[in-house]
Amino acid sequence: MNKVELMAPSGDRASFIGAINAGCDAVYLAGKKYGARASAPNFEQSELAELIRFAHLANVKVYITVNTLIYDDEIESLLEYTDFLVENQVDALIVQDLGMMSILCKRYPNTPIHASTQTNTYSLKQAQFLERIGIKRIILAREADLKTAVEIKQNTKLEIEVFVHGALCVSYSGNCLFSSMFGGRSANRGECAQPCRLPYSLVRENEDLNDPSYLMSSKDLMTLDKIPLLIESGIHAFKIEGRMRKPEYVVESTRQYRMAIDLHYAAKTIDTIQAIDRLKRVFNRDYTNGFLFSEKPHTINQSLRPNHLGVNAGIVESCRLGKLTLRLLDDLQVGDGVRFLSGADYGMEISRIQCNNEYVKTAKIGDLITLDVPVIIDTGTMMVKTLDKNIDLEAKLFLDPYFKRVPFVGKFLAKINEPIKLTVSALGKSVSVTSEYIAVSAINQPSQNTQLHDQLDKLGNTPYYWDELEIDADDNLFIPVKVINEIRRDAISLWEGKVTERPAPAIEKHTATLQGEFRSAKVGVVAKVETLEQFHAAANSGITIIYFNDSMLIDTTEYPEIEMYEVKNRISQSEPTTSSSSPIVINDLGQIPELGIVWIGDQFMNVTNIYSAAFLADHGASYVTLSPELQQSRLESFYSQYLKTFNHSPNLEMVIYGRLDLMISKYCPIAKSTGINRTHCNLCLENQYFLKDRSGALFPLLNDGFCNIRLLHSKPVFLLDYLSFLKRAGITRFRFDFTTETGEDTSAILKLWSLAENHDLPKLDRTRFTTGRFTR
Predict the structure, then answer these.
(1) What are the contacts of 634-638 at 24+ separation with CB within 8 A?
(2) Do 161 and 198 sit in the same domain of this protein?
(3) Mean pLDDT of 237-258
């Protein structure tokens, strides 16, 4: 069994160095663009070549994320960037965009392409598809369980990577538009503003069921206690999340997981209580083992607060006149950071501690102490420690770029009248250097073994140290200090060249990738419906193309004049059972059917560039529904660029009316709020539930099947007043998405189509609608 790879995050240089010094096997990071953590400092292109070499000198791999959706006007710049990375020996590229995957897998035959967790790979079918197009590793969706990971490993040659620690997204990755639609900051572009970490209340029909709380904020993932099981499952790589976290967090989390892994291979076990306590002190939102270990969905939420909880450190006994007295539940020292979880929710750094009527630097568990606090804190309030000074100071030791992390084993050989020789071995690589200098007998002062050792030991500002250094030298010989320094430098340089050596990069810039020819299909107006009432309203309105939820029971033979498509569940838990006579609408690669079945690629195929559209066309799509994140300015040239590049016309569909899906989640806020501790409770089928934000906006919740909850926009998108532009832009299918509308609402909205076509659309109350990202 290959030893598992430990991957650490890096958002800045300090984290990068700290991760390597703390013992990771690989670091993942991003440049200033195209990485899914745009708010992290990230790295200038000029730094990346240096950092890759720095990591390779420690036998650590570097994976660079290019895992955002890409627009057409960025492709040339992106390829220049990825060419640069490949030329500088990056160990892998992590990619989300389908079009870019298709290009990069062929462009870089010797550089592995990894499918980002943003591809939302949660099933064997998806994994097998990605393997066929050239992907070498998948970062499994956080919602997938261990059984699925093992199934993929057993049925593909793919490397499997899973998250083992850090923040969890409440939405299936690559399927969240919440931040994008409400602030213009796209999660698919690395800009997420985390609206899920804000307070919401649950509403049933018109009834508020609870006070606002952090109802959609997830706990942090922690699997330190499951490391033996994960290793034995054969998973290739364990990934720590945290490119936005401080360097001390990266160091401590890497250290603890490194220790747990190494102890397992040594047939020993880590003290999980102590290790988890240390992890909690650098950052936690409370912990869960996550869906990887089949945690119940409603248990992953932490509704108390969305930020660092720290560890319980004391209970307030009294507070007056700027003085607070409390009983300690944890050791406390000057320089620690604390927060009081009361209405004021006040945080501070400890500047002085009074205990037994004297000021002390440190107080112990059980001590009654007094602190200076400029606000009133209620009696009984819990004080948590959010910064542990000792752990931070320990972590800072690992941030030194010259931290001694590479153990050399060396042998120095010097015989009179023979050339001197130095052998250096480390990290599985060994080199020998023979000097041109011939050792001679000493006339005055011979070179003693201790002097030779001391001179060879002068490794200076390097990450190297001598773990063993054997000196085999004749007595009474003389070697100049300059010669010893030269042979030491030459040996280290030769070893560095060997340890950083990689196969020559291959870049195939002119490899043909895509054909881009769509299957012929009907143009016109489409209604996508969730209910029978909506279906009949659409049919009676003369709509001849209808997409219907595949849980609806419709006899398609009764409507020969209507072209009908089953809309497959966004997250499918079973094999598709569709005949060639039943066209389908799909949202993930694992649902792409066998040849002969007509299918449409829906919005969450995330088509934002012509290559993604062509990729789906090459795999049999009749139409692609463009991403709602494609803005008007970029849509304008989409059709013409496609035609020029592929010499075929694209079949493009766009949603011009409907409540957008902001996210889809395995977690259920209804079960959480109502205390239901089981799945398939069906409450969401009995009543309409909403999330209500601080402004009073209501976001409908719908069941997508298998207890996956869809969170819808509070307002429908309405783009009928842009119909002329959309037609000029090459859109040939115009789609109305109906979700919570009644049959009467459905009919009324569809009547607007003919008015819009005749340029007779009535003036609208725009406050009831949104244009989403289209006009941003």
Answers:
(1) 634/71, 634/72, 634/73, 634/608, 635/726, 635/729, 635/774, 636/725, 636/729, 637/72, 638/72, 638/610, 638/729, 638/730
(2) no
(3) 96
